[in-house]
Amino acid sequence: MMPSRRKLVLTKAFEKSYKKFISGNNSLKAAIAKTLYMLQDDVYDPPLRTHKLSGRLASYLACSCGYDCRIIFVIEKDLSDPGAENIVLLDIGSHDDVY
User: Fold this and answer.
1) Is 90 exceeded by the pLDDT of residue 83?
2) Domain spans of the chain?
3) Is the CATH code 1.10.10.400 the one for domain 5-98?
4) What is the pLDDT of residues 19-39, one digit of tens each?
5) Which residues of 63-97 are buried (b: 16+ CB within 10 A; e: fewer)?
6) Which residue of 35, 53, 66, 95 is most buried, as measured by CB atoms within 10 A?
């Protein structure tokens, strides 16, 4: 059985949070790029520490991209490609920013 194909989908809110969060920090930019690559390859790769959220964010997942960096996302079926999924990136920031 082939693993499902996953595509990253960036929301406007994620792009805005990303720009604000990295502003001038190139090492953070590299860590986030590596995390996004891993996320696309395997959402549950242990270093990502992917977990379901609770409370008002109960329908979302989060992963870690460094000491104080979290990415909030959901996984949706890709309606245009039956075997594929979209990882919809919703927010990024420090633990306190996103929760």
Assistant:
1) no
2) 5-98
3) no
4) 999 987 888 898 999 999 999
5) bbbeeebbbbbeeeeeeeeeeeebbbbbbbbeeee
6) 35
